[in-house]
Design a protein that fits this description.
22% strand; alpha/beta; 7 strands; 36% helix; Urease, subunit C, domain 1; 5 helices
Length: 152
């Protein structure tokens, strides 16, 4: 009787301990596909601009923080990349942009999509209607003259 009770108690304790360990591991649905760690992560968040690691799941940023925090979503299938101190800027798609040009295209005449004379006239007309009287029309990015055979 004592032996049966002892065995049952041991089994119960082992089960509880196993459940505790399993609950510390992320579930399959929470495991990151990719972890970038051991570097400097610029978050873009004013309150916490720098971190050590990034976790990605299904192509989206899942977690950003210290290496130990992000390690909490590491699973058996997680790919881990050691950054060796390199800088990561998660979320940036194009790290070479000319914001002033984008602003000019919004404010002035945008001729990027113009492919013929009628389109040119229409783009200039629409911009002139939008601008206050006497305002200068700026912009351009026009390259259709090459297609039209005009000399410049």
């Amino acid at each position: 009787m004592f032996r049966a009770r002892s065995t049952l108690l041991s089994l119960a304790l082992t089960t509880v301990a196993s459940l505790g360990v399993l609950s510390c591991s992320p579930s399959l649905s929470d495991q990151a596909d990719l972890i970038l760690t051991g570097g400097t992560v610029w978050t873009g968040v004013e309150a916490a601009p720098w971190a050590e690691a990034v976790a990605v799941r299904d192509g989206r940023i899942q977690a950003v923080g210290s290496a130990s925090e992000v390690d909490g979503v590491r699973g058996g299938e997680t790919r881990v990349v050691e950054l060796d101190g390199r800088l990561v800027t998660p979320g940036f798609i194009d790290n070479h942009t000319h914001f002033n040009r984008a602003g000019e295209l919004l404010l002035g005449v945008n001729l990027l999509e113009v492919s013929d004379e009628a389109g040119f006239v229409e783009a200039v007309r629409k911009t002139a209607e939008r601008l206050p009287e006497g305002a200068w029309m700026v912009g351009g990015m026009w390259g259709a003259y090459e297609q039209w055979g005009l000399s410049t």
